[in-house]
């Protein structure tokens, strides 16, 4: 019974949620999910509604109003509280993974690019003069070389970013 109800109401719910989402500031998928949950709770407690289509339209509008009211009372933080996000284990792990991916991509660059990028990424914060001296190239050719290497790095990283 519930499966038939879900199958028959799916397209209507998608349309109603899409129509109400913009005005409520919610995502259509969030409205759909909330209404499906309300329907399942309703079926479990009282059985299926006598007029499912009418019930669904009302439920979508009710959820949209609830979302609007909630959104009016929620204010985003200006900044994260005391730097909490940057020191959470998840954020540290993600940052370490990004750092490893970048270093791996830098090692795959052609020619002098790996050495140049390592110098640019160095925690010692080297000047162009110091980098040029370290690599044995003129300071004037460092900018064009850097641009070429960054282009290669972008091309290397683009498929990896798109795959995620």
Fraction of residues in β-strands: under 5%
Secondary structure class reads mainly alpha
What can be said about the biggest beta sheet?
none
Tell me the Rg in angstroms.
Answer: 27 Å
Low-confidence stretches: none
Number of H- or I-type helical stretches: 7
Count of β-strands = 0
Q: Cα distance, first to last residue?
A: 39 Å
Shape: elongated
What integer is the average pLDDT?
85
Helix content: over 70%
The run of helices and strands is: HHHHHHH
Written description of the protein model:
With 164 residues, the protein is an all-alpha fold. It is built from seven helices and no strands. It has helices at residues 2-24, 28-46, 52-73, 89-107, 113-120, 128-135, 139-163. Helix 1 crosses helix 2 (28-46) and helix 2 crosses helix 3 (52-73). The radius of gyration is 27 Å and the shape is elongated. The two termini are 39 Å apart.
């Amino acid at each position: 019974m519930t499966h038939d109800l879900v199958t028959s109401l799916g397209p209507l719910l998608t349309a109603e949620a899409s129509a109400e989402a913009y005005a409520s500031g919610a995502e259509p998928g969030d409205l759909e999910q909330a209404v499906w949950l309300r329907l399942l709770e309703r079926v479990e407690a009282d059985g299926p509604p006598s007029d499912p289509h009418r019930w669904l339209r009302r439920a979508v509008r009710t959820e949209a109003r609830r979302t609007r009211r909630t959104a009016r009372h929620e204010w985003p933080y200006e900044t994260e509280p005391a730097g909490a996000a940057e020191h959470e284990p998840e954020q540290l792990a993600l940052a370490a993974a990004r750092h490893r991916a970048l270093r791996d991509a830098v090692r795959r660059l052609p020619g002098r690019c790996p050495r140049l990028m390592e110098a640019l990424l160095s925690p010692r914060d080297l000047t162009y003069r110091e980098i040029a001296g370290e690599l044995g190239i003129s300071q004037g050719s460092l900018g064009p070389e850097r641009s070429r290497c960054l282009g290669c790095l972008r091309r290397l990283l683009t498929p990896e970013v798109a795959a995620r």
